[in-house]
Amino acid sequence: MKKLIPALFITLLISGTAMAAKLTTSKEVVDMSLVDQSVNPCEDFFQYACGSWLKSTPIPADKSQIYRFSEIDENTLVILKNILQNYQVGNNTPGQIESEKLGKVYSACLNTAGNEVTAKRGTEDLLEKIHLLQNKENFMPLVALLHKKGINPFFGIYTMQNPGDATHMIATVDQAGLGLPEKGYYSDEENSKIRVAYKNHIKQSLLLAGIHSDEANTLTNKIFKLETAIARIQLSAQDQQDPIKTYNPIGKAALQKKTPALNWNQYFSAINFAASDVLNVVSPAYFQKLSALIEKTSLSDLKAYMTWDTIRETSKFSTMALQNEHFNFYGKIMNGTSEREPQWKLCIASVDNSMGEALGEAFIKVAFGQNSKEMADNLVFNVKDSLKEMITKLDWMDDQTKVGALKKIEKLNQKIGFPDQFRTYDELEVTDDSWFMNSLASNVFQFNDSIKKANLPVNRSIWGMTPPTDNAYYDPTMNEVVFPAGILQAPLFNVNSSLAANYGATGATIGHEMTHGFDDSGSQYDELGNLKNWWSKDSAAVYQKKSQCLVDQYNTYKTEEGVSLDGKLSLGENIADLGGLKLALAAFYKTNPNIPEADMKTFFIAYGQSWCGKMTKEAERTTINTDVHSTPKFRVNGVISNFPEFAKTFQCSEGQAMAPKNRCSVW
């Protein structure tokens, strides 16, 4: 679904093995009662496949969007809630070595009274450290302190697989520090009202953190001015998708020379980082300009901005007043959500974020059977085999490029359900009375774990998602597809549903992730995960032309609010959506070269219903501006309209919306 380590889709709960059976058998992948028979599938297949669902399914007050697969999330939440409630009272069933710690983390998050006291004190301690900064000479050690706690003013640091040497990890410094979703929000005319609301949010948050009213007014203006200046020098969302632009290995000495206002020796010393002389700098131009910006900005303004960034990045787990203010802006204004999620759901997400693999180890014991794993493995194998055949038969790719592509397919790794070995959390210390302090402790734990991997050999057994996650990803540096147990549940996947249904829904998702290895970004990595050009000039030119067809196609789409999609921003995902369904269909044909018309209809309806979804208008606008995925309607119609097989199955005439005269075909 997402390319690499996406946002969590998590919602869970109910107990025991009986629930596990129910989860995998209670929902069919295709539900014909969701179809709107009054709609012509050749004109709007999304509305046809999902119309009755769209009419009968309101967006919950505590959500900004809902999908048919949200049922998976809710079931998962119930399972996890039951597990954690047992751990709270010392009932270690199913057996879990980390049960006491998991119970503490969950209890602390639910303990709102205890958190009020500790969050207030913890926030004051952090803000006092910023207040005590007396000169710019000690600026970077303070930034380092905040970074370790998961607060990232100005920039962030993490370790990733080295795109230039896929066998080792590399420390990476990246732009960070914006409170609005993307740099365009700070200047685009269409977002002027959001900027006004954001400034008010800054002011209200400062007041709630104990800053005096008169000072809050002054600080708000300083903060927004500096944050706008930071946004102006950052890479755009589109540029951040470019692996060539964002891979810039630079030695520490050279980095220091380019950024004289940033004392990197102090910073690296403060975070205990001395593993490597070379780092990846995502945007050298950003850091050069940031250095100049910090040089000319007064110390008081820098402190004001760091104060705000600290409050903003901790407000989700801070005092209830700050939590509510955070929700009022990011939930209501930015995404159109009218109510907060219940505290227990927020707490499960928090536990998953802090100790996700420990929680996942318990989850799979009650929610993921061996039959599901075996069938998913088989689907992945068949789709992979179809990808190999597809590449072999391509008439536009020359032999030189095919050799590279086939090597990549041959080396493609698959991870299904859960890790072979679960992560341990021995070094994470938690309490049972402070969500705030536990969250900071988890951030420190994750930070230290990441930094210590710099320059070490890559551990290819590590997962980028936890087992309960309802999502999937392809990692181009690992050249692997990963499908956690959370996504391999009904109604997306069901061992008792037809092959047509499972190939149309989960098969398309599998193909989607595999196709990411050959999209506008993933195609630039070789079979080992190195950022390396293995394309001939001629094949690359044809590929670019075919990709441009999709850019042009999606640029023509508009929402009901009249907002245009960004075909360039979403190109990688659109290539993967189109290629994924094509691979799933090819794999399905392998099971029966003469597929009956009824099964073909089931296949396409399964794909359409896998994306039944709706968003608030606010969430839709934010998605279009910042998300690399298209909105649900166009993830369906944009793909389906490029399939002659669909037009034949549903007897569409050329010229109808789902059967255009000119179609896009990348693979």
Characterize the structure shown:
The structure is a single chain. With 667 residues, the chain is α/β, with parallel strands linked by helices. It has 24 helices and 10 strands. The strands form 3 sheets. It has a 4-stranded mixed beta sheet. A 3-stranded mixed beta sheet has the order 7-9-8, with helices on one face. A hairpin with a 4-residue loop joins β8 and β9. α3 packs across α4, α6 packs parallel to α10 and α15 runs antiparallel to α16. The two termini are 18 Å apart. The N terminus is likely disordered.
Structure summarized in a few sentences:
By secondary structure, this protein is an alpha/beta fold. It has helices at 16-25, 45-56, 70-88, 99-110, 112-131, 139-148, 192-208, 213-233, 252-258, 264-270, 284-296, 299-314, 320-335, 343-367, 370-393, 399-411, 435-451, 499-515, 537-555, 571-591, 597-610, 617-626, 632-640, 644-649, and strands spanning 12-13, 65-67, 155-162, 165-175, 249-251, 278-281, 413-417, 473-475, 480-484, 613-615. The strands form three sheets. It has a four-stranded mixed sheet with strand order 3-4-6-5. A three-stranded mixed sheet has the order 7-9-8, covered by helices on one side. A two-stranded antiparallel ribbon has the order 2-10.
Keywords:
667 residues; alpha/beta; four-stranded mixed sheet; three-stranded mixed sheet; 24 helices; 10 strands; disordered N terminus
Q: What proportion strand?
A: 5-15%
Mean pLDDT: 93
The number of helical elements comes to: 24
Name the shape in a single word: globular
Spatial strand arrangement across the major sheet: 3-4-6-5
Q: Regions with pLDDT < 50 over 5+ consecutive residues?
A: 1-26
Gap between N and C termini: 18 Å
Q: What's the main sheet like?
A: 4 strands, mixed
Give the proportion of residues in helices. Answer: 40-55%
Number of strands: 10
What gyration radius follows from the Cα positions, in whole Å? Answer: 25 Å
**Structural class category:** alpha/beta
